[in-house]
């Protein structure tokens, strides 16, 4: 539906539909995963990894030129299957064990961060001073959930206090079960 009008579409599935993640997993397994494993990794000079959940993915490369070659080839590969990269969500950034050193060479202050699956991933240090991948709840997701909670509270003021507490506890439990590892990860 667009602006209250039903629009028939001959291609794809509705955004946010329950079928979307399932079909993305099947389609991208052949379009992206196997291609990455069989073709991309063979042409890389360093290590290369991909992490994918439904239609979201992060590709990691040891060397910047491998990442740039992948990004170029990715557009061509996806076009063959009538797909395209979301430009606003796509970037090449320096990240990982040597990111701090490399960013300082380029007159930067600190390594960039990226959001993936509701978490902001960033470079940090362990208590012993070693590199550690850290993550926290994405600021955008956090503020969205706070706003939704505020609206829910305003709409449900008429409920008894015990009903409100039950619902609040369920909402908080859901948040902690998904984002709880971020709390653990940032305190290590």
UniProtKB/TrEMBL annotation:
SUPFAM superfamilies: DNA/RNA polymerases (SSF56672). This is Reverse transcriptase (RNA-dependent DNA polymerase). Residues 1-121 form the Reverse transcriptase domain. It holds the Pfam family RVT_1. It comes from the Bacteria. Keywords: Nucleotidyltransferase, RNA-directed DNA polymerase, Transferase. The keyword Chaperone does not apply. InterPro entries: DNA/RNA_pol_sf, GrpII_Intron_Splice-Mob/Def, RT_dom. The keyword Lipid metabolism does not apply. GO terms for molecular function: RNA-directed DNA polymerase activity.
């Amino acid at each position: 539906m667009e602006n209250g009008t039903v629009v028939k579409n001959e291609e794809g599935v509705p955004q946010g539909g329950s079928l979307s993640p399932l079909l993305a997993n099947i389609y991208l397994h052949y379009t992206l995963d196997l291609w990455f494993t069989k073709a991309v990794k063979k042409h890389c000079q360093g290590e290369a990894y991909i992490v994918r959940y439904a239609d979201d993915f992060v590709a990691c490369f040891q060397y910047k030129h491998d990442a740039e070659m992948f990004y170029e080839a990715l557009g061509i590969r996806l076009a063959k299957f009538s797909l395209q990269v979301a430009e606003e969500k796509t970037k090449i950034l320096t990240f990982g064990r040597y990111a701090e050193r490399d960013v300082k060479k380029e007159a930067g202050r600190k390594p960039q961060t990226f959001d993936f699956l509701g978490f902001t991933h960033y470079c940090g240090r362990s208590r012993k001073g070693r590199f550690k991948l850290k993550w926290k709840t994405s600021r955008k997701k956090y503020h969205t959930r706070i706003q939704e909670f505020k609206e829910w509270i305003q709409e449900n003021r008429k409920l008894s206090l015990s009903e409100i507490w039950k619902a609040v506890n369920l909402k908080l439990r859901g948040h902690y079960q998904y984002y709880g590892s971020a709390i653990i990860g940032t305190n290590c």
